[in-house]
Amino acid sequence: MRRVGASGLSVGRVGLGTLTWGRDTSPETAAALLRDFTEAGGNLVDTAAAYSNGEAERILAAAMKANHLHREDLVLATKAGFGVRQGERTVDTSAKTMLADLTASLRRLETDHVDLWQVHAWGGAPLAETLAAMDRAVSLGMVRYVGISNYVGWQTGEAVTWQRAVPGRNPIVSSQVEYSLLARRAEFEVLQAVRAYDLGFFPWAPLGRGVLSGKYRQETPRGSRGASPHFAWFVDPYLTPRNRSIVEAVARAAAGLELDPVQVALLWVRDAPGVTAPLVGPRNTSQLAPLLAAESATLPAEIIAALDDVSGGPVQGRE
After folding, report:
1. What total number of domains does the chain contain?
2. Is residue 308 part of a domain?
3. 28 lies in which domain range?
């Protein structure tokens, strides 16, 4: 277990993401994923009002019932302020929309509170209004802790400082952004802010949107995210010659260590400085199995250094 920043919340070292639930992952498969995850000791499940237009949250509630899980067995994290409205992707972080999203999330999750409520993205509403809505949610008992998602460094600093400026406001306890061997931009500002403000950090897409698995080394396989009409845009930017060299390095390291490439990619992120819990999003139990099996593993220092070098250089703060 790892503590989420300076808060009283603790989570397992890997979280289960639900981005594909309701679209590529059926309710039956989702229930099996949650079963395997919790039986292995996992407790953090991350979802959002925007995932499959709320269907992921409904499926999560049903999966909890199917596995006879009690509310206290899980750390439930969800997000608000982003979604498809009137057919268009929209970021709306106004107090009205944020609280409406939360109310709908609680209804779909069939619970009276979530453990971590996050702003899904930086929006056009005044930051003070967005954060006041989060304070309101905590005061009403709908939320235990609040966090931010997809904020860059200066946005993180502004949000955290605003909440700390006046006694009685609820502190930002965590940040969630993309971070992997293929996406190390978070190191330039976000991870520095995470360390400076003692925040929890939840990297999403720690497997490089699936590219670090090596499945795209020769071609885009049928049934993969890269072959799907709704996720191809998500994977395509990572299929570059530079990234191919990183994928090959991960594959060589995995072969030498007798690990799966996804285990190497996950361990590099999980044990990076400042990381609380990477959020993995397997679409089925066969994809989840090697990630769970990596719990007791660590990467040798020389392998970490080699992967650092091939992907962009030393990681600040790594011992």
Report:
1. 1
2. no
3. 2-208+272-285
Q: Is a pLDDT exceeding 90 seen at residue 223? A: no
Residue 300 belongs to some domain of the structure? no
Q: What CATH number corresponds to the domain at position 78?
A: 3.20.20.100
pLDDT at position 173 over 80: yes
Token representation of residue 18: 């639900």
Q: Count of CB atoms within 10 A of residue 16's CB? A: 28
CA distances from 151 to 46, 156, 211, 245, 301 (A): 17, 6, 24, 29, 31
Would you say residue 266 lies in a domain? no
- Binned at pLDDT 50, 70 and 90, residue 227 comes out as low
Q: How far apart are CA 287 and CA 269, in angstroms?
A: 17
| Assigned domain for 197 exists | yes
Residue with more model confidence, 233 or 279: 279
Q: Is 115 helix (H, G, I), strand (E, B) or coil?
A: strand
The pLDDT value recorded for residue 228 is 76
In Å, how far are 130, 131, 266, 311 from 242, measured between CA atoms? 39, 39, 20, 9
Q: Which two tokens stand for residue 288?
A: 């989840």
| Alpha-carbon distance values, 257 to 13, 211, 244, 313 (Å) | 21, 20, 20, 22
User: Is residue 28 classed as helix, strand or coil in its secondary structure?
Assistant: helix
| Predicted confidence (pLDDT) per residue in 70-86, tens digit | 999 999 999 999 987 77
For residues 8 and 50, the answer to whether their CB atoms sit within 8 Å is no
